[in-house]
Specification:
mainly beta, 222 residues
Length: 222
């Protein structure tokens, strides 16, 4: 993971050509972008003693809102709330709920740094139809986060973009390709990987939660 994050960081530093697609590069006051992504997300848990359990993936909606403030500044809200399918025909499923509020600063045209706050909740849910009951165990982690995002044009109306960020309790990276359909509308394909570290501990055992998957969506800029 550390090598992957370092490689992504280096990639972002090298992204410096003129781009035409997301993420938002104009932080002028009143400018903004809305990203809606349908993502096939697989949620997993990794116990330091018992190993990894993968739950069947399910399509979920990711949302991101970015608003320009002027003076190379923007504010961004991201919401990620994937839910797995039931575990092998049982009534047990997992759910991640991640909210992130960031302040972005444009270092140059296609590279921005950001700092923010992440609130992540992991839930393990058991439905008991025979008794019409639902039992849920939830664990929450909150932390400050820092990151970089950047993009570069790879073809007419098409760009490669990526972001990497993390904090004490999590790490995350995105990499994607955007295509400009209209001057204010873009189609995006991207991969997102998110990890909540040590969301739960008992004795010498630590449990991490993961969410990852390929997404397809639209970005509207105004």
């Amino acid at each position: 993971m550390k090598k992957l994050l370092l490689s992504t960081f280096i990639l972002l530093i090298l992204l410096c050509s003129v781009a035409v697609a997301s993420p938002l590069t104009d932080y002028s006051q009143g400018r903004g972008a809305i990203d809606l992504t349908e993502r096939n997300t697989k949620i997993s848990i990794k116990d330091s003693v018992l190993g990894t359990s993968d739950f069947p993936p399910k399509y979920n909606l990711d949302t991101t809102f970015t608003f320009g403030l002027g003076n190379k500044l923007a504010v961004q809200y991201r919401y990620f709330n994937p839910k797995s399918q039931n575990y092998y025909s049982s009534s047990h499923y997992l759910q991640l709920k991640v909210s992130q509020l960031n302040v972005l600063y444009q270092l140059e045209q296609n590279i921005s740094a950001f700092i923010g706050f992440t609130d992540g909740t992991f839930s393990s849910v058991y439905e008991v139809p025979a008794y019409n009951q639902t039992v849920s165990y939830s664990y929450n982690r909150q932390c400050m986060n820092v990151g970089l995002l950047g993009q570069t044009q790879i073809a007419p109306k098409t760009n490669l973009w990526g972001s990497v960020n993390g904090g004490k309790s999590f790490t995350e990276y995105n990499i994607g390709v955007g295509y400009q359909i209209k001057p204010n509308l873009e189609f995006n394909v991207d991969y997102r990987n998110f990890k909540i570290k040590k969301y739960f501990s008992y004795g010498a055992q630590n449990v991490d939660a993961f969410g990852k998957g390929l997404g397809f969506g639209l970005t509207y800029k105004y």
